[in-house]
Amino acid sequence: QRGNMDKPNFWERHEAKFYTFGHFYANIYGQVMIDYMPHEPLKGPLKVLLIAYSHVFSLALIVVVPCYFGYHYRLLMAAVDSRMQLVLYVGFANTLIKYVTVVLTYMANTLHFRGINHGCTMRRARLEEDFMAGYRGPRWPKRRFETFMYYKFFLINIMMIVQVCGIFASSGGDESDDPSAQASRALRTQFAIYSFVLWNYTEHMADYFFWMNSNVLKYLRVLQQQLMRALQRVRLLARSRRRGMFMANCSRLCDRLAALRQNFIEIHALYVESFRIHQLQLLGLTLTTLINNLTNFFTIFNLVSAHSLANASYPVLISVLYAFTYYLDTYIVTLVNEQIKQEMTSLALVIGQFSGYPSLQPPSLDQEASLRLEQFSLQILQHRPPMLCGLLYLDRRLIYLIAVTAFSYFITLVQFDLYLQNTR
């Protein structure tokens, strides 16, 4: 039975392959700094080549391609009726938010290259090597981390499939012989491909942030398990009344608490640094989710309206499915941050249990152990959940805020749509 427990599972056997694929795929989109499992530094010429490619690719997305679509804007927004044109405007606003997020991502990647590649990535690698290598406790923190990774992996692939289906759907549609209609349909197909590339560009950094925070959550859960084991040692202190044995156990407990406190400082620093680096991109992700949610409501309205059922089409259904999966993607990111907040509270409660034992009250316990506990407790209590650019907390409250705001905008869109119908 022990042999089965120690046998590596599917994730442990193929974890390096997942990370290598993620690093390679990120390089295609110019995200050179994303390296999930760094092995050795890049050679000088190769590193310069990849960084140069990153800048060229990013500037092409930010400058060259938008100029092309801006020049053909009227043809891009041409529609046969006012309702379809309103849907096009909402979709264009969605892509515009993605574009702004790409600009913010490029700026953040350029400014925080060392912070991402040498700071967060290397700090996580050290924690994984030093903190997790010697862990022999319950394996459920690792299993939940793997579940998050599987869920995110399948969700991202579903979103990619849905968007590819949407691109093919936009290339079909009306088989009109009008050259203007054919040119407009071809331009919208190109615009859908451009929107897909923008989403991939921003999603790489969002996935990296999600992966980093999932690791933080795993480390906090492992840290709590180790604190619980230290708490069991405290119970044993009450049984050893001989002073020599008691002082030896106290000394080992002090050393253990000092090591766990240092681990907590490293974990907390990783969490705060990752959040600080990615907050601008996350704010763009929040706005994109808001527009997607708004698009979802409005397209559902188009589907259920009696006078628009004849116009309900496959691209509309694809856009609804995509908006729903994008909402789920944002929800799981906020869920991880919500659970990190809960783990911080649980850690504070575990630390509080130490002082509840008579054997830990002075003068039973020497001043050093009491000081260790006090420092650890203050370190946890000083933690404050970070905010997105000082505006929003990235937890479940953000999901509720997005849903309520999108519904309010949806009502405004419905009123505007009814106005268009009455003024025909």
TrEMBL record:
<feature type="transmembrane region" description="Helical">
    <location>
        <begin position="48"/>
        <end position="71"/>
    </location>
</feature>
<keyword id="KW-1003">Cell membrane</keyword>
<feature type="transmembrane region" description="Helical">
    <location>
        <begin position="191"/>
        <end position="211"/>
    </location>
</feature>
<comment type="function">
    <text>Gustatory receptor which mediates acceptance or avoidance behavior, depending on its substrates.</text>
</comment>
<keyword id="KW-0812">Transmembrane</keyword>
<feature type="transmembrane region" description="Helical">
    <location>
        <begin position="398"/>
        <end position="416"/>
    </location>
</feature>
<keyword id="KW-0807">Transducer</keyword>
<dbReference type="GO" id="GO:0050909">
    <property type="term" value="P:sensory perception of taste"/>
</dbReference>
<keyword id="KW-0472">Membrane</keyword>
<dbReference type="GO" id="GO:0007165">
    <property type="term" value="P:signal transduction"/>
</dbReference>
<dbReference type="Pfam" id="PF08395">
    <property type="entry name" value="7tm_7"/>
</dbReference>
<feature type="transmembrane region" description="Helical">
    <location>
        <begin position="86"/>
        <end position="108"/>
    </location>
</feature>
<keyword id="KW-1133">Transmembrane helix</keyword>
<feature type="transmembrane region" description="Helical">
    <location>
        <begin position="316"/>
        <end position="336"/>
    </location>
</feature>
<dbReference type="GO" id="GO:0005886">
    <property type="term" value="C:plasma membrane"/>
</dbReference>
<keyword id="KW-0675">Receptor</keyword>
<comment type="similarity">
    <text>Belongs to the insect chemoreceptor superfamily. Gustatory receptor (GR) family.</text>
</comment>
<protein>
    <recommendedName>
        <fullName>Gustatory receptor</fullName>
    </recommendedName>
</protein>
<feature type="transmembrane region" description="Helical">
    <location>
        <begin position="149"/>
        <end position="171"/>
    </location>
</feature>
<feature type="transmembrane region" description="Helical">
    <location>
        <begin position="282"/>
        <end position="304"/>
    </location>
</feature>
<dbReference type="InterPro" id="IPR013604">
    <property type="entry name" value="7TM_chemorcpt"/>
</dbReference>
